[in-house]
Write a structure and sequence with these properties.
It is globular, with a radius of gyration of 21 Å. The termini are far apart. 85% of the residues lie in helices and 0% in strands. The protein has helices at residues 2-14, 17-43, 45-65, 70-78, 84-106, 109-130, 134-159, 164-170, 176-185, 197-225, 227-243, 245-259, 265-293, 300-308, 311-326, 331-355, 357-393. It is mainly alpha-helical. The model has no long low-confidence stretch (mean pLDDT 84).
Length: 394
């Protein structure tokens, strides 16, 4: 145990940059979680589910519009290829189309603006992380989460449930500063896109297929089980999102390192151990606390137990994904996302109708494990091909 603790301290000393990301992400997501927990108590399962349904619509608009993903920008910014403003412009133009589509189809201006907010934060985070501006990343992230809490609650009491999404959308305004700075710093240059279109397009579809699975579940749950069950499911996801904060922090840090060829085995090893500890907390401790905090959300307890098991395969999947994206080899990441999403959709539709929320969360776990298996196979194949290429050169 002493040796494990010593190894943990050594890893932290070697990776000081992770503190800046970790501080901002941890505090910011904690504030965000408190906001959503407060809303869950104020609204009840059905109205809470309705809010998340509209958030899913905005999320769908974002993932289809974000042609230049956060990961793509992080990789090229780390490699000092000044393509960011061009990619940002392309994504904002496609986001404008999504903006109009949502207004025409849903007549919701707040949801349309939320799409632009989602796009801007993703692009900005890619720029900040790729340029190792970890401190700025934390400052902006924390600012947005504080505004989320304040504006979301104030708009709820001022305008009712209809004002919540408007408050959330306005919380992303500070990130506009980063976008403006990028346009001022570097000229638009479409010639930089052409030789890199393969990676850009592959990574777009990779993120699209992965994010699609995280949004489509809401559209499956509502017609099968209703808004109330979606509210319970959304609360379980929010709690597990808090538990998986460490996973996302480590991925954001590792991606920049993998992009420039830095191998960080110690951090990856400690990350997996940490995810095991968090999973045990979610399976054993949380089910005893949740009924006291949220008595209206009865079915959330079992859902949290199962979803907590997702944290371990998710952490390992993110480690493999970071490595493959750093090598600009996104093919297997794309394949893993497509297959796992297809399994998730089919499983949710079938098991959801039979077992309700239990069947839905079980499919989330199964699809995550399938995604990990494909990434492991893909990494081994790519490493084997690279070894063949080196041998041929010798």
């Amino acid at each position: 145990m002493k040796q494990l603790w010593k190894n943990f301290k050594d890893v932290l000393k070697e990776n000081k940059g992770i503190f800046s990301i970790g501080f901002g992400d941890s505090i910011g997501k904690f504030i965000s979680a408190i906001f959503w927990f407060v809303l869950a108590g104020l609204l009840g399962p059905e109205q809470y589910g309705e809010i998340h349904y509209f958030l899913a619509i905005a999320g769908m608009g974002q993932i289809f519009s974000l042609l230049a993903t956060s990961q793509t920008i992080t990789v090229y910014a780390a490699k000092k290829i000044r393509i960011e403003p061009t990619l940002i412009l392309i994504s904002l133009l496609s986001g404008s189309i999504a903006f109009l589509v949502i207004i025409i189809n849903f007549m919701r201006l707040d949801v349309a603006f939320l799409v632009l907010g989602f796009i801007i934060i993703e692009l900005s985070n890619g720029v900040l992380l790729g340029n190792k501006k970890y401190s700025d990343y934390s400052k902006y992230f924390l600012t947005q989460k504080v505004l989320l809490f304040i504006l979301g609650i104030v708009f709820f009491y001022a305008f009712g449930i209809e004002g919540i999404i408007s408050g959330i959308a306005l919380s992303y305004v500070p990130y506009v500063i980063i976008i403006i700075k990028e346009f001022k710093k570097t000229k638009i240059n479409f010639s930089l896109v052409r030789p890199r279109k393969g990676f850009i397009v592959n990574n777009y579809f990779t993120v699209l297929s992965g994010s699609f699975g995280s949004q489509i579940d809401k559209f499956i749950v509502v017609p099968i089980l209703g808004f109330a069950v979606l509210g319970e499911y959304a609360l379980a996801l929010q709690i597990v999102l808090v538990l998986s904060i460490g996973n996302n922090i480590i991925f954001k840090y590792l991606l920049q390192q993998d992009a420039v060829g830095i191998i960080n085995k110690n951090l990856k090893r400690m990350a997996i151990i940490f995810s095991v500890v968090i999973t045990c907390f979610g399976v054993i401790v949380l089910p005893a606390i949740i009924p006291t905090l949220f008595p209206e959300y009865e079915k959330t307890v079992d859902a949290i137990r199962i979803l907590s098991l997702v944290i371990i395969p998710e952490m390992i999947s993110l480690i493999y994904t970071s490595k493959l994206l750093g090598l600009e080899k996104s093919k297997f990441v794309l394949i893993s996302n497509i297959i796992s999403t297809a399994v998730l959709i089919v499983g949710m539709i079938t098991l959801g109708q039979i077992f309700g929320i239990f069947g839905i969360v079980v499919m989330v776990l199964i699809s995550t494990c399938i995604q990990l298996l494909i990434l492991i196979i893909g990494k081994k194949r790519i490493e084997r091909n690279l070894n063949y290429e080196r041998n041929d050169e010798d």
